[in-house]
Amino acid sequence: MVISLVVLISGSGSNLRALLEACSSPEFPARVVAVGADNEADGLAHAEEYGIPYFLVDPRAFHSREEWGRELLAQITQWTPDLVVSAGFMRILPADVVARLTPRLINTHPALLPRYPGAHAVRDALADGATVTGATVHIIDEGVDTGPIIRQHAVDIDPADTEHTLHERIKTVERDMLVATVRDIATGQINLEELSA
Fold first, then answer.
1. Where is this site: Raises pKa of active site His (predicted)?
2. How many other CB atoms are found less than 10 A from the CB of residue 134?
3. Is residue 43's pLDDT more than 90?
């Protein structure tokens, strides 16, 4: 079975590109059907390159977060995706959006959750003096990076690391892990309903 994906991005879209490259193989059991963004993200160029439709739902165009969430949900659900992937999407989804999509709503995070949730995970790990951090793929729930963990991979922190160098190493791990996770969801090796029960 081939599952359909809607991928949400806010930035350069390196995780999106990894998924698009994987999906271009006939053997890979998933296809990206649409890409969504909350701004004119650089990563939308990857969707254009691969001929994937995309939509933009900018929160600044709406009177409330809830109104923005309703429009975002409408844009997502018109594609009837089997799985929604938040891949560097830097906004917390409103509760009604999460309730409608979870558990088939996953996120990548550049830390070993539950440590270092939130938008500054790499900086927080360095500030904490940690020697190891990593990447997590998890189901999105109504909290901030609190949903059930699907997969994690550790990354050692080098004493010379800056936020940029560490984040780049984490991104490499994150991309591979996300592709593997989507494949395993598609083939039934990962059951999101069981994980979220």
1. 145
2. 25
3. yes
Q: Where are the beta strands (DSSP E) in 10-141?
A: 30-37, 54-56, 83-86, 105-109, 132-139
Annotated binding residue 91 = yes
The residue extents of the domains of the chain are: 3-189
115 is in an annotated binding site: no
**Of residues 46, 63, 109, 164, which has the active-site annotation?**
109
The CATH architecture annotation of domain 3-189 reads: 3-Layer(aba) Sandwich (3.40)
pLDDT one-digit tens code per residue, 69-108: 999 999 999 999 999 999 999 999 999 999 999 999 999 9
Q: For this structure, is 63 an active site residue?
A: no
CA separation for the pair 99, 66 (Å, rounded): 13
- Residue 192 binned pLDDT confidence (cut-offs 50, 70, 90): very high
Task: Say whether 139 counts as a known binding-site residue.
Answer: no
